[in-house]
Amino acid sequence: MADLKPRMPLESLLPMEASGVRVREVDLGALTLVMPYRERDAALSDALEAAQGLRWPEPGRMTGTTGRGILWFGRAQAMLIGMAPEGGLEDHAAVADQSDGWAVVEIEGDRAAEALARLTPVDLRPGVFEIRHTARTELGHMAASLTRTGKATYLVMVFRAFAHTLVHELGIALQGVAARGGR
Amino acid sequence: MRLPCPICGERDRREFYYAGHAVALERPQEGAGAEAWDYYVHNRDNPCGETRDLWFHESGCGAWIVVTRDTASHAVLGAVLAEEAAR
Q1: CATH classification of A16-27+101-179, choosing from 3.40.50.150, 3.30.1360.120, 2.160.10.10, 3.40.930.10?
Q2: How far is residue B27's CA from residue B39's CA, in Å, rounded to a whole number?
Q3: What's one Pfam family the UniProt record gives for this protein (chain B) (predicted)?
Q4: pLDDT tens sequence across A85-102
């Protein structure tokens, strides 16, 4: 029998640090994409609250935390993080396990937004993109999910197949920030 | 250029895929004559002024939206979800 060992998508590539910005891999645990059927949004939100104590997030927001929460993930889509999809969600929505499908990093530091702004068109100014705000966007031409989880902390998710590209793009962005010096 | 996605708010044009005039929302009914289908498939207006286009928020939320804009002034006047415009 082969002895299979789980490997995180980025374990040989991170952490990295430049310009006081730290990039590390995050293990979000179970990831479940939930897509409500037509007109079943309210029933789904009720089922989630009964089973998990968390309601369906508004567009561009997350409920709970990145340890255990629900991340808005697009039109009529949200990602359950760190919880089993219990409570009969299948009655109201299409439910798909994507735990192994995403490479996830946390980017932290005063100049983190400056580095991300080199890669994404989202308006990251603190008064616009606030803590617990999330966006589906592109990051260096990769489809990504971008969430502000703290004052200077961001969570970035890309498809696992883009793990190397993500680290490459972030590395170049951080080099660019470093080259500009402090403000 | 920034487009006002009804779900995400104002977002950069590069997140969107352009699908041309919103004619797909006015597909002829079954049994419509050849003339109606000919017009639907081949003919497009080329307005100087207000126009309605379909855009797909491809690397954003994934919604199809109908954007009203002015081809003369380049002003973007508004947007609604295509699923609502089609009702």
Answers
A1: 3.30.1360.120
A2: 10
A3: SoxD
A4: 988 999 999 999 999 999
Q: The tokens 């609502």 sit on which residue?
A: B84
Query: Taking an 8 Å Cβ-Cβ cutoff, which residues of chain B contact chain A?
Result: 7-9, 11-12, 14-15, 57, 59-63
ipTM: 0.87
**pLDDT one-digit tens code per residue, B2-52:** 999 999 999 999 999 999 888 888 889 888 899 999 999 998 888 999 999
Report domain extents, chain A: 16-27+101-179, 31-97
- Cβ-based contacts of A75 with chain B (< 8 Å): 7, 57, 61-63
What's the CATH code of the domain at B51? Answer: 3.30.2270.10
Query: Who contacts A81 (Cβ-Cβ below 8 Å, separation ≥6)?
Result: A28, A29, A30, A31, A64, A66, A67, A68, A69, A70, A71
Alpha carbons B33 and A161: distance in angstroms, whole number: 49
Element of type H or E holding B21 = strand B17-21
Q: Which residue in B has a C-alpha nearest to residue A158's C-alpha? A: B59
Q: Which domain holds residue B56?
A: 2-85
Separation in Å, CA of B26 to nearest CA in chain A: 22
